[in-house]
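REQUEST
  id: r-88c1
  op: predict_structure
  target: Iron reductase
  payload:
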Amino acid sequence: MQERERVVISGLIVLMLILALGFFVHRSTRFAGSLAGGALGVSGALLMLSGSAYALVKRVGPLQKALTGKVSLRTMLAWHVYTGIVGAILALLHTGHKFQSPLGMLLTAAMMLVVFTGYVGRYLFNAVAQELREKREALSKLQAQYDAVSIDLGRRAAPGVATAGLTSRLVAGFFLPSAALEGIGDATAARALRLAEAMADLEYSIKMHDVFKTASSRWLKWHIAVSIVFFVLLGIHVWAGLFYGLRWFHP
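RESPONSE
  id: r-88c1
  status: 200
  body:
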């Protein structure tokens, strides 16, 4: 289900980028203020506004308790993702590729950043987190096997092979080459070294994934900050349209 969702969302992202690049081949100076353009703009704004309710529900405890019994957070997250991207597509259509006012350009740029940061946080960092969980599970299994082999080697009085820790495992690989293993006994020592090397590789990979995990938390903060800026600009845009008058029924 999540894989299908990722494919659909990726397709919508590509469509949004194609529409944004349409600025180079098409411009309509009057479409944004027309009835059709206004309907697209209002629809896009309402979709994005409704999707933003997920962030509020997730962070306000009483509100979350009141709503999660009726609608799960997973469902609200899916609504948040789809409405954000579909709303952005409608907003791009609303512009008619007319980017002349500073407010309009800032609003469009902020909207694209919101979608981009949301997409990266939802799928890229989520994939990294899933891979991190899998590697930790694999490391736990290897650790259990390594402990069993270490006990076996300890009984055979083979000091130096059953080392522990990332650094000591790597050092063991250098100072106990295959030639030295012949005097230790059998394949148990060789297996211990193979397990040690595999665990060292996994531990290093997990440390690198932890860096991504830290970055993902910062990325989420950036996504929220850009979203706030976007909705502020959207509010100013709507106010300006109402203040200077709508041209939906003007020729």
